[in-house]
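Internal tracking record. Fields below are filled automatically when a chain is submitted to the structure queue. Please do not edit lines marked as system-generated. If the sequence contains nonstandard residues, flag them in the REMARKS field before resubmitting.
Queue: standard
Priority: normal
Entity type: single polypeptide chain
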Amino acid sequence: MKFIIQAGREALESNGGLVLAGKIFAGLDLDRRVNAVKIDGVLEPKITNGDVVRSYFGLLVLGRTAYEDIELYRANGFFRRALGIRRVPSAETLRQRMDRAAGRFDIAIKEANAVLLGGAALTPVKTELGEYLPLDVDVSPFDNSKTHKEGVGRTYKGMDGYAPNFAYVGAEGYLLNCELRPGTQHCQKGTPEFLAETFALLGKTNVSCSVLLRMDAGNDAAENVRQCRQEGRAYIIKRNLRRESLEDWLAVAKIYGAAAQPRPGKIVYIGSCTRFMDDGHGSLEPWRIVFEVTVRTIKANGEQLLLPEIEADTYWTGLEEYAETVIELYHGHGTSEQFHSELKSDMGVERLPSGKFKTNATVLQAAMMAFNTLRRIGQGILALAEIVPQQARSRRRRLRSVLQDIMYLACKYVQRSHRHFLKFNCACPWLRAFEVLYARL
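SYSTEM-GENERATED OUTPUT FOLLOWS
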């Protein structure tokens, strides 16, 4: 079949979802904050800081990070109108302003992001004793190999890049806080300060139930536990056994644990015990440890073992729930790996655009706000399950699906008598949900 290619003057757009992102951004009061920032060498800018931040935010919610991509939208009236931008900067202006303002926009963006989360529905996890809002803190390396960017170093995963720290809140995986770190930095370094900042940002949201901090063994440090206990925060931190003997833990498990035999040749002990630890002021206080010790004498394939195989997983926790509940709650921490993947792969944020560390740190803060904007759009679509296509019915919309189904929605942009219209095909399966979501935001 042959097609005839023609050019027309109709304003056809392939990014209809920008109007949803623009409506979310409009309620954050970020322009006033960033416009108040004084930048050396930019005394009276023709393009305001707010327009620069809005323009780069528009790129991020479309899955773009390169400064040069802004040239695709400079002559696009819909891009400017959807995001409330007066003047779209050139790629050179965008790069220079981000470099000169490196680090100065971060606080304003973090506070605006907390306001954004204040309008999101955060789902807690339920236990036999109550509800907890999960707060998952974890490091996920960014691969920036074969570059000479400032701060790039050998990460614990054996690649050159950065080692940023992230804090996700709620079962949906909203990004509450993030911090760019050099690739060689240990995951625990700077974590107490990061936790203090994260808890402060949490206070700016509409969270009403108790918060449950979950961290892996890389953050097994007494100062983290002390900080949670002093602030009255629930926590589950996986312990690093270091030089502790597996045989000793098996002996403890036989005394304090309940044994179960899921199959012949495998015994699992689950329980809890108490250790008295220094509270940081010279006194001792009881800290609860939940453990799961597994002993195998026969492998799953039937192979007999000459010596028993012992595995031990132990956790610091301030919860009073059953040990089985605590272990199940910690297993939910693994979902944060999916959130990392959405940020790095779906949004394309992994290879940061600048050669300067502080600029890339600001880029990551802007990406956090774009991440949450896409998450809010996706969860808003899920709330309209009765009027969206069947394939959209799931517990959480992956950001790639939000980009493909909503952000890249084709439409026709019409301006008439000082009024602006977006026209969609009447057969578009997302039209009704788009209309309702736009009205609700």
